[in-house]
Amino acid sequence: MKTSFMALLCLGFSVLFPQLSPAQDHTNQLDSLVNDGLPNNAPGTVLYLTKGDQVLYQKALGKANLELDVDLQVDHVFRLGSVSKQFTACAILKLAEEGKLSLQDDIRQYIPDFPIKDQMIAIEALLTHTAGVKNYTGLASFTDELKRKDLSPAALINLFKNEPLEYEPGTNYKYSNSGYILLGYIFEKITGQTYATYIEETFFKPLGMKHSYFDHPVNLIKGRVSGYSQRNGRYQNAHYLSMTLPYAAGSLASTSGDIQIWYHALYHG
User: Fold this and answer.
1) How confident is the prediction for the chain on average, in pLDDT?
2) How many beta carbons lie within 10 A of that of residue 1, not counting itself?
3) How far apart, in whole angstroms, are the C-alpha atoms of residue 175 and residue 129?
4) At 138, phi and psi to the nearest 5?
5) DSSP single-letter state for residue 168
6) For 63-95, how does the pLDDT look when each residue is reduced to its tens digit (9 = 90+)?
7) How far apart are CA 218 and CA 150, in angstroms?
8) Farthest-apart Cα atoms in the chain, separation
9) In angstroms, rounded to a whole number, what is the distance separating the alpha carbons of residues 146 and 140?
């Protein structure tokens, strides 16, 4: 799931500056690199560079809102797009760790009305984009009109569940948002919680990710930035997209600082 306005988490700086340490001050060097490459009067970018728990560099460039001429800040909240899939995958793995599912389970154990295909589809195949389930965002039925509608997870699955598989599960790889829609629905069925509630209670709150959310458009989210797209070299406001549609494949929002908390937690078990 693509998003037209996203935070740039500058992991690439670790390649450009492999010898950085907290004691060293490379601010001028990094500023020069950043200022040469990123405009300051366009939809903005947040850069956040850390080593362990030490923040080495953070900077916001560009605008949070073009119409109001509001500068971007490092603690502004962005849509994560497909970075959300990390949380969905970890939720499934946590349920597997708790013995509530197996990665080798047929998805029909949890979604009985999913049509029987020629082959069994295992949960693991959904996680690894090897299930052959068609990507619903590429279907003709995923129209601009539909993108404005709120759909339940079951209704969303109805968009693609009758499509034939693109290949035998486990024999190929093709990126598919549909697989992560199915994963979100599976752990809703197992836990009895909504996707938004489970992610908040299981990950955001315990880790202290206080600026991370399911991106409900009607909720007031402090620091949430505007979205833009570019057409013929000019910026325009991004078209509305109901966050029920990216769902477990791309509906979360966060800050660069909170994402660093998440990555630190992953790397440390």
Assistant:
1) 89
2) 20
3) 5
4) -100, 0
5) -
6) 999 999 999 999 999 999 999 999 999 999 999
7) 12
8) 60
9) 11
Each residue of 94-126: pLDDT tens digit?
999 999 999 999 999 999 999 877 789 999 999
**DSSP H or E run through 31:** helix 27-37
Enter the tokens of residue 19. Answer: 């010898």
Say which residue the tokens 């560099």 belong to: 57
> What pLDDT score was predicted for residue 180?
98
3-state SS assignment for residue 28: helix
Helix axis angle for 177-191 and 84-97, nearest 10°, is 40
Q: Which entry of 4, 14, 82, 84 is annotated as an active-site residue?
A: 82
In angstroms, rounded to a whole number, what is the distance separating the alpha carbons of residues 145 and 190? 32
Let me know: does 7 contact 256? Beta carbons within 8 Å. Answer: yes
> To which H or E segment does residue 76 belong?
none
Asked if 82 is an active-site residue, the reply is yes
Coil, helix or strand at residue 90: helix
